[in-house]
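TL;DR need structure tokens for one chain.
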Amino acid sequence: MINFLVVDKIIKDALIEDIPGEDISTNSVISENSISTVDLICKEEGIISGLKVFERVFHILGNVEVIFFKQDGDKIYPKDKIAIIKGNTRNILQGERVALNLLQRMSGVATLTSKYVKEIEHTNAKLLDTRKTTPNLKILEKYSVKVGGGHNHRFNLSDGIMLKDNHIAAAGGITNAVKLCRENSSFVRKIEVETENLDMVKEALHAKADIIMLDNMNLDTAKQAVEMIGDSAIIEFSGNVCLENIKSIAEIGVDFISVGALTHSAKILDLSMKNLRNI
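>> reply
TL;DR here they are.
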């Protein structure tokens, strides 16, 4: 579910950015009382995500209704009509770009995520996102990862303990880093440790880390690490994962695979508002 208390602020900030004064093009040629309808159409194949966010833009502007023919998670194809937007013409035109930008971004994340999920669906591995998100759009991007069939990792630094290379270096090693976490955080928190080689895996196991991340390991080393860990910890693989190699990674028996590209490199899904008609 999306928290619209957060989303409304994102939308309002975007509208202020796009309309700092007035929409001089629209206001010059469209009367205040003009009513129109326009179609939301798909221009390329993908997974749609963010329809309620799209609709919310027009609810905030007011006097616009959106009628959907699709729902989040649906596969869409070129020329599909996704929705009809009906209402005040000025508000439709003022909200068009913000609404499309958000919907295209979210649908792009969902579409790319679905491609990764398809590559590993024959295994027990689950696909995770990361915190490599667009600033202030994290809630929308992570929602879209779920729409595309993936799973969410941490939402923020308050959401879970992950000891990365710099944490480990600052603490003087994995053993002391884990010890300090157990002393200074709640017992309900799992502790994840990032490892880069087999010696670090051994140390993480000895320290009884709950989750061991295999970071940027080659496949042979990762296989050995999976055998060493067994059922002693949850295993996550991360680093240099792409569509071409994720299948091979999943097949070595890891529990989770995190992919930053889901949110930092997703191409938008091409959508458009066309065929405006005055009523």
